[in-house]
């Protein structure tokens, strides 16, 4: 074991790993928020509750259907994404031309209802979710021990995040999505069903949150509060990266996770507030965010 700036390497790299883990979830959740806001112009405050729904869906699939982690990683986001599309069709479609505040209040109310129902049936204590057998154990890298499951979370998050960015920014489908938000009449002229595209986009954003929830279940346990504990930090990440910016959500999510982890090593007292301090500084210098575009 060696030291860096007087700090044992195991402690430094351990916190760096925790920062990357947290950053993986920040990036996935803020990506879903950025997709929904960028394409639908809705501030989705129920995103944390939908993240929690993904974790609970995985837990219930295991308890009542015997479906383990790998099937749940596919089934749970689909199920939660479908509930998101139903919410969009029933409630959100009426708010697109109104002020952002209406969407925020509606989704905040939905989050309270979803969390209240989960708390009523399962209480506030965390429910354990077992690690998949294939990802147990870890690798000794010499300077630190790297658990296999943590490594998988980082790789999976990076793959999903940059895959989503590529589809939205570099493909014809992404071009249609962006065009549908600015000139829906033109997109309809190409024979594309814009309302259906918007519904599927919202469902995809919700599915991203549920996917993150399934991956979080073995690490943080399954709890009704797991989304509400995280959503404020994720909103700060989105604001710093730029509202609606896909690349900003990804880069800022991972970057702030690492900064938060390193802060716990060098200045632990500031670890809970460092992200909000950075947000205040960024808003003073660039009100649109690091990757956002001025209106």
- The Cα radius of gyration reads 19 Å
Structural class: mainly alpha
Tell me the CATH architecture. Answer: Orthogonal Bundle
Q: How many DSSP helices? A: 11
Name the descriptors.
295 residues, mainly alpha, ABC transporter involved in vitamin B12 uptake, BtuC, two-stranded antiparallel sheet, two-stranded antiparallel ribbon, 11 helices
Brief summary:
This protein is mainly alpha-helical.
Tell me the layout of helices and strands:
Blueprint: E1 3-4, E2 7-8, H1 9-40, H2 47-65, H3 69-90, H4 100-122, E3 138-140, E4 145-147, H5 148-170, H6 172-182, H7 184-189, H8 194-220, H9 228-241, H10 246-266, H11 274-285
Antiparallel strand pairs: 1-2, 3-4
Helix pairs in contact: 1-5, 1-8, 1-9, 1-10, 2-3, 2-4, 2-8, 3-8, 5-6, 9-10, 9-11
Describe the structure.
With 295 residues, the protein is mainly α. The protein has one domain (9-120, 129-285): ABC transporter involved in vitamin B12 uptake, BtuC (Orthogonal Bundle). It has helices spanning 9-40, 47-65, 69-90, 100-122, 148-170, 172-182, 184-189, 194-220, 228-241, 246-266, 274-285, and strands at residues 3-4, 7-8, 138-140, 145-147. A hairpin with a 4-residue loop joins β3 and β4 (145-147). The protein is globular. The model has no long low-confidence stretch (mean pLDDT 89).
